Amino acid sequence: MNYLLGAFKPACNVLITFNDGKNRKQVPFKKENGQTVTVPLFQSQENIVGKVTIEPMQGKKIDHNGVKVELLGQIEMYFDRGNFYDFTSLVRELDVPGEIYERKTYPFEFSTVEMPYETYNGVNVRLRYVLKVTINRGYAGSIIEYQDFVVRNYSPPPTINNSIKMEVGIEDCLHIEFEYNKSKYHLKDVIIGKIYFLLVRIKIKNMDLEIRRRESTGSGTNTHVETETLAKFELMDGAPVRGESIPIRLFLSPYELTPTHRNINNKFSVKYFLNLVLVDEEDRRYFKQQEITMYRLQESS
Amino acid sequence: MLDGTEDEEKFLAAGIAGLQQNSFYMHRALDSNNLRDALKYSAQMLSELRTSKLSPHKYYELYMRAFDQLRKLEMFFEEETRRGCSIIDLYELVQHAGNILPRLYLLCTVGSVYIKSKEAPAKDVLKDLVEMCRGIQHPVRGLFLRSYLSQVSRDKLPDIGSEYEGDADTVSDAVEFVLQNFTEMNKLWVRMQHQGPAREKEKREKERSELRDLVGKNLHVLSQIEGVDLDMYKDIVLPRVLEQVVNCKDELAQFYLMDCIIQVFPDEYHLQTLDVLLGACPQLQPSVDIKTVLSQLMERLSHYAASSAEVLPEFLQVEAFAKLSNAIGRVIEAQPDMPTLGVVTLYSSLLTFTLHVHPDRLDYADQVLGACVRKLSGKGKIEDSKATKQVVALLSAPLEKYNDIMTALKLSNYPRVLEYLDVPTIRVMATVIIQSIMKNGTRISTSDKVEALFELIKGLIKDSDGTSNDKLDEDDFKEEQNSVARLIQMFYNDDPEEMLKIIETVRKHILAGGPKRLPFTVPPLVFCSLKLVRQLQGQEENPFGDDASTTPKKIFQLLNQIIETLSGIPVPELALQLYLQCAEAANDCELEPVAYEFFTQAYILYEEEISDSRAQITCIHLIIGTLQRMHVFGVENRDTLTHKATGYSAKLLKKPDQCRAVYACSHLFWVEDHDNMKDGERVLLCLKRALRIANAAQQMANAARGSTGSVMLFIEILNKYLYFFEKGNPQITVASIQSLIELIMNEMQSDSTTSDPAAEAFLASTMRYVQFQKQKGGAVGEKYEPIKYEPIKA
Lengths: 301, 794
Description:
By secondary structure, chain A is mainly beta.
């Protein structure tokens, strides 16, 4: 295998580094092949400054028609595999056509890059940011190297954040009133609330609060909707009677949540719901789903 | 349900196995300080407690195992915080568990460490814990979880003097916490009965009963909080607890919790909050066994009152009696279906309480009895045996307390309560009363009291209407009547007039007793009267002048009437004895006609009623004995009576009896201290007659059986001879004695006589006496000297 690999070995090593790579926060990132690597974290409007180092293999030279680095923001639909949609594309030419004999380093800089969307890795869709270095070689095929990085955008706490309060029920069977303290939660937030039982005529076995994520991709007839239950949190065990009030306290930090994404580039949306589920002794489920908005709050460190 | 229990064992075993396995992993994580794994495995371990398949009993077993593991986990958490892990983070971390039950167990465990760390006020943590526990609405799991919370928080309450008491934390927070936990637990406990199919209700109630201590423990914790002083108890604790008790509307819970309240909190608190506590009682479910609850309360208060005299003023201050009394009234009204047993038990307890707390307030005791009568009225006789027992207890209480029937007699309602008892019980009660009098030697000294007392014990005095005594055991009856007889002896008053009244009262009552009782009751009455006679006799005649109603004469008249009543029943021997007793008393009073009359009556009885020969013998000896001592009679009367007596003697059936009676009659003619009554000739006549009869007896025996029988009679007569000889009867000569001795010797040596060791011994001792008198010397010795006697050579 080794020598086979050696045969197809690229003619050079291409290394992309960030200038502030040492200090910049690194976050885990899952690649297509399932491996998790740590990559630098950026946010919109930041300068992305770094170097591209090209080091030809010992004793080889690289003929090229130019070297460029691109910053790409891509949306990839899995059902439309291979079809990337670039919503952001910036290019910096690094070198004019020529030959590289030895290790050569090109600095690059993208200033105040507009990166409105966050990196997202969903069921049917992926949004990623990547630096793409291309060494253009006419006949031998270009040498291309990618460097992923993650973008997260922070929002300030919303000025209006009403609680969600609702009375629901099945006539003569079950009436409850529930309340979640907010409608917008940041990713490390705590959902506080309570469920108040106004009428109970069914034998309830337990009650759970689920966090569901609904990812819809495509548009029109081509819309794919995927719903995942990210959290199933038991709130109550046993059958309550009229007048009982059951507390809710759900810490969001253990779950892998993302901010709510609405109609990202007309390609996809990610929404979050709290689903209150009551299960009776015959395992019938009674539920009520409420949308909540997730946002990323600047972590004070 | 065999399968059910087997299955249950299986489930329990599976649960334990799962628990042990996860606790093993947990320990491994603990040893390697792996917090995340420790949490994971402890949550899995605790998941075993989520089962619904175990009965509370089995569940408890599982819980205890988990409990032990949690202790270790708690220690680990403590170490973890010492190593620098923030307790606040830990507190959050355990809440990530998806299942609520393990989550809450862990939360309580960390909460306990949190309070210890003092990084947050204890009250906030406690409040959070008790609130979060609401998530468990399953009764059994909820009860155990909250019990766990109660357990881990017990030593961490912000009580007065506790290290967790802070500026912000006061004892009221501690109380609030416990109260809330209590309330929730009680709700769960009460709810348990509605879970599951109706047919298993009984089983469920039993299971509930097993769990009750989990709930009650909270009250215990409350009572242990230092800071719960009287004010706080009165203003917060009790009203809140009672509110819960009343509102839960559950029989089992109400009874248990009321009992708990009474048992765990101090007596003085109860005393000061009687209003509130008692106010709750009528609001309880009608089926609650409230009588036991109240009885317990009163019992406790009684003990409290008895414990120290200093606390008694408190009782007065809060008018404990009035309050209890009212409360009982209200409870009985609120529960119209309460059985008689309940009613009586309540009053019985109240009475005990009153007697302990207000021994001086007899009117209270009477009020209690009165109230009891009112409640019993219209219900007829009590038939329930338990209720009867309670009534007896109720009525015995004052007797025991005062040791004095006089006090009980003052209770006007006492006899009215008695009326509700059935006949046998009334009798038992009467016996109890009499026993009390006997034990304490109480003298009953006025006719009013006697009247009242007889009213109480009338079950013994006469047959009650329409019921017969057939069922009654003869021995028991005798026992009862004997006790009545003893009771009659306890009546005494120094004042003769009052005493006479007493006697008349007694007479009135006992005469109603019917033939079966009179033989028992008349004698003591007669002796009582005679006692009075003797008393009067000692005094000057008629110290009160002529008007005085109490004279011996009058009493004798009364006695005559009393004894006469015995004639209706065939007990002539008894009547005869009593007549003789009276005659003797009359003799001492120097009332010849009266004495004569009594004798006449006795003779009439002898002639007309006494036909049994054995009885005749006894009676004739009694008559002779009595008559011998009479000194009041004039010659004529005496002659008549002695003549009659001698006549009766000679007419006895058997010769030996005749003989003995006749020689006894000889004493009638020789009264030692009265010279005018020494008639030696007639003495001799009697003795000779006796000899003749003895002779005849022997001949008859000879004829009938071929042997002459015993010489006993002769020896007896010889003794009489010697007696009169010694007393100086001139008619009794040495010669006559000598010849009698010879006669006896001959008889004894004759072949036809069967030897009789008793007779021989008797003779020998008689002769020894003669010998002894001889040796005495002096006048007596000289007198005996001539008597010769040759002992028999066998």
